[in-house]
Amino acid sequence: MEQQETAILIATTVLVVLVILILTLFWVFQRRKNSLLLQQKEAEKKFERAIAETQIEIREETLRNISWELHDNIGQLLTLAKIQVDVAKEDTEKLPEVTETITKSLTELRALSKLINPDAIKSLSLTEAIALEVERFNRLQFIEATLSSNTEVRTLDNKAEIIIFRILQEFFSNTIKHSKASKLMVNVRYSKDKLVIQAKDDGVGFDMNDLKSRQNVGIGLCNMQNRGKLINAEVSLDSAKGKGTAINLTYYYKKLVTEEEDNL
């Protein structure tokens, strides 16, 4: 009888310990899950803020582009047309020149109208948006730019396209302003699992070991890499003195499962 009571006591104790252990584990799991959900929500908020900031930057860059084109290109054409009109008043044989200049001005205005819509990137594929930038560089004779792409084109997430376009836009801007390059080559390649974009200029370049001393370049590279991480893209710069600068961007279509999501 005493042995039976002892066995019951031991069994009861073990059962109580197991219940307590299970409840403790459940409590720990719930806390862990809630913490991860909170981190996920914070990460989503950070991502949305980054997207909003990127959209603002694209619009600001677009407005700067419009300002340059109005002043440096269309403004000069219209000034030339005015001069030609004054000349044509005395010599009607000059009228065809006036017509040609005005026609060219209208062509430039139509090209510029593509940039006026702040949401233009949404209505274009990524390759089309890049082609628009390349076309603008050539039209304004900023640099001799070329774009090559394979025939396969995949529809990307709109937010990923915005981030990728802004990364490239930042590289293009640095090329135009600082590289002293005469040529810019852009290559876009879609494959089964990823998108690879390479852009290279033939400018003065720089020593990659001097990134710390070249604060603007270092910060710019960090910004581009941090943006890339938001969409699971890898971004790297490659440069050497006298050999130009290149950017390599690899974007994987399928989002990798994060450690936090895996632990859920």
TrEMBL record:
Reactions listed under catalytic activity: ATP + protein L-histidine = ADP + protein N-phospho-L-histidine
Q: Which UniProt keywords apply?
A: ATP-binding, Kinase, Membrane, Nucleotide-binding, Phosphoprotein, Transferase, Transmembrane, Transmembrane helix, Two-component regulatory system
| CDD domains on file | HATPase_UhpB-NarQ-NarX-like
| Family matches, as PROSITE patterns | HIS_KIN (PS50109)
Name of the top EC class for this enzyme: transferase
* Keyword Nucleotide-binding set for record: yes
- Alphabetized Pfam families for the sequence: HATPase_c, HisKA_3
GO (cellular component) term, any one: membrane
At the top level, the lineage of the source is Bacteria
InterPro entries for the chain: HATPase_C_sf (IPR036890), HATPase_dom (IPR003594), His_kinase_dom (IPR005467), Sensor_HK_TwoCompSys (IPR050482), Sig_transdc_His_kin_sub3_dim/P (IPR011712)
GO MF: ATP binding; phosphorelay sensor kinase activity; protein dimerization activity
The UniProt transmembrane annotation reads 6-29
Q: Does the keyword Repeat apply?
A: no
Q: What EC identifiers does the entry list?
A: 2.7.13.3
PANTHER family reported in the protein's UniProt record: NITRATE/NITRITE SENSOR PROTEIN NARX-RELATED (PTHR24421), NITRATE_NITRITE SENSOR PROTEIN NARQ (PTHR24421:SF10)
Q: What is this protein called?
A: histidine kinase
Which species?
Answer: Aquimarina amphilecti
